[in-house]
Amino acid sequence: MVAPSATLSVLNRADGSASYQCSSTGSNILGSVNAPVELPGRRDALKPEDATIEVFVKPGTAPAGVGERYVEGILKTLLGRVILGREKGYPRRGVVITLAIIGGESVGRGDPYLILLPALLHTALLALLSASVPLSMTFSATVLAVDESGQIRREPSAEDAATAQSVHVLAFSSKGHLLLNESQGSFDFDTWEKVRQRASAICHGTQLVSADGDVAMAEDVDGRPLEGTLRETVEDQVYRDYNWKINAA
Amino acid sequence: MASSAPPPALTLPPSQFARLQPHAYLLAHLSPPAASNQPSLRANGRQPAQFRPTSANTGSLTHTNGSAVVRVGDTTAVCGVRAELLPTSDIASWSVSHASSGAKHRQNTTKNDADADADESQIQDLNLLVPNLSLSTGCAPGFVPGAPPSALAQSLSHQILGLLHSTRLVRAEDLRVWYQVPSFGGDGDMDVDADDEGQKKKNDGKEIKAFWVLYIDIMIISLAGNAFDAAWAAVLAALRDTRLPRAWWDADNEMVVCSETVAEATRLSLRGLPIASSFCVFEADAAAGWRAVIVPDAEEEKKIEEDQRRGMQRRWILADPDGYEEGLSQERVCLVVDREMGKTVIVKMEKNGGWAVDGRELKQLVDIAAERWESLKLILEQC
Amino acid sequence: MNKEAPLSIAERDFILNALREDVRLDGRAADELRPLKVTFGEEYGHVKVQLGRTSLVTRISAEVTKPHDDRPFDGLFTIAMELTAMGSPAWDNGRQGDLETYVTNVLDRVVRHSNALDTESLCIVKGVSCWSIRADVHITDYDGNLIDAACAGIMAGLQHFRRPDAVVKDGQVIVYGVDERVPVALNITHKPLAVTFHSFDEGKRVILDATRREEQAAEADVVFGLNNAGDVCFMSKFSGSPVDAMVFVNKTSVALDKVKEINAVIDKALQADLAKRAKTGRAEESRAENDR
């Protein structure tokens, strides 16, 4: 399994940005975050004590439609719980997240956005980190397909997902909570529990708690846990950004 | 001349308290003081796992092929299904075949599905089902006239479309208008090449001449929370009510002709009866907001039993939330289940917006959704 | 919002005074382009254009549709550009601003109306099916001169794109996947590009390829659309203060030089990409042989 690759702060104008490539699904997503920004005309926001989160998903080769509105809703709900919109400077302002699908297949009308969802989530998270938006936790997500024989397949292609019995997207927080679940198809609860276990292993690996209480990431059949890959991307960026300071010390 | 009577304590009627401090109001209902001996009820008087009274009525619109009105408490959805004919000559992609399209068809056929249909994907490829949901002006205070379709309406439309596709509720065969090509003598000159692309259009001299396209329009005329359950129930009831007139290809006039006789119209044969149940999670700690959020560790949290939760940790999973409760909760769960021979099949399971619901809670919710399936099935069958 | 934060008076004066001494902020000459970089992605028709600090991604896609009733022999070609908050924080997502309308209009005229893509070659079966080519422009960074950059992106994309092969057999159109038959390049009749000038001091000073700040300080802009042969297919002075008519005469030849320069960059990138593909293609072929 080839790990996804990501780069932080690729754009000049946006406050934060990230580009994310997932080789197994072939998706290539560019994300930008502007935060905090003034949002005039939206002063009547539902919660004046909180930041307004706006998510915009731009498909690569088609005009945006209802499918994009729906996936924007999913991202907005999830990120709304992760972004600390009440920190200083954020209430009554906006966090504007723009995600452009600049590579890979487009999603057809009425097709579920599930296959792309983890990539969109990761891009949004990395862009938020790059814009230094305060977050309560990070998360990692994956998509799994279950075929007729009950085999679980990680990050299926569009064709695999179309022939699968059920498709599941799960996101876990850095503390192990199930943050998001989107399952479609027909399945029973036992199947879902198996899927949840596998997804948890993909995102977090098999956790080993060492003597001093630190949680170490262990590798298993799925290669490096996603959580670790994302963490490393950010660490690399921090190292580059503070190169001057580290070298001087 | 000071009066000896103390100034009256500041009191508020419940309706004002509910508006000023909605969170505290609902919390007080759900966690009454131990001394009062009152049961834990929601502000609307329901048990946490209790759904609102539901009623359904079909066939109320005369100019549609099928229609239904579904009321779930104060949320009312009207659904009308209108069938239009789409001649295959008008479909740009009809005469196009992809040399490598073998793997594209969906194959999740269930066991009792005798008529496994290789071309089931036609419904999706040709857009034969077109649902559109509108939140009508005034269905809730926030909806003003003349506004473009809100993000909520658009995403509900998409959810319904996605569910229609993934449950394969409508059979593609019901929507086809066939034409039996009269055979003129020998078939000796049949083209060998006709085999690969011929599968799609011709079998035994039969040819698809047109499709029925079902325009499924849903209007929420009153919105008091949980629009999806009501809308989906309305779609389901309307599709069960839908009758398509008999249509055939008139070879002389080269057009599709429909019969006017009502008796000849046929109902759709739907696959299963998937029913949606939505839940929201109300957290005691929501006032929370003004303080920094302290997120507990998932592993530690799992050890706390539900009835052991105290104070800030307490939370309630509320079935079929009304508008007031929806405004007070962030986490949502939506389950769509079907039952076949006593077995519960999950068709769709979504949860988002929080971390209270995990495997254990979802398992309970699936059981609640299965109960809801039984009760709603009775309602839909009676109408 | 939809408007960039205006320049401060001091900033504007600084830019103007420097220009009066023939100095630009980034040290370029008046008729000099910023460094232009064109790169292609793995898919056909995926182009990344970097012009100084302006960058964008263009994607070309094709699908089979029904032609318009009044033009049964013509395929369809659309250019879609939507400005999102990604390019500049000043742009609102999902709301069309003046700049978007203007740039889309110019691109339409330079590329589409000049018939750079031969739409008749997109016809498959008369009146029944044709190819619909769509060019999507994603602006990822905005630092002035959107028109020239987007135009170069679309033209490079059209030249790079390969559509699947389609064959008509017994009234049936068979589309072959990219891995089954060698995909077909589009029929490009000529390669028009846009070159934008900005004028200052009532049209006395004219510069090429302005940055965002220079654009904000400018009084008017003049856009030329022409191809390598020097055929002018578009010329506009849309708004702003008057410009001396001689500017049009003098700058046309400058524009022609720049068009040749940009086209040379695109050609070079195309050649390099082609060579790369040929190499990996051979590698794949030899691997396939080894498998057998």
Automatic annotation (TrEMBL), chain A:
Organism: Aspergillus aculeatinus CBS 121060
This protein's name: Uncharacterized protein
TrEMBL record, chain B:
The protein, known as: Exoribonuclease family protein
Species of origin: Aspergillus aculeatinus CBS 121060
TrEMBL record, chain C:
Domain of life (superkingdom): Eukaryota
Source organism of this protein record: Aspergillus aculeatinus CBS 121060
Full protein name: Ribosomal protein S5 domain 2-like protein
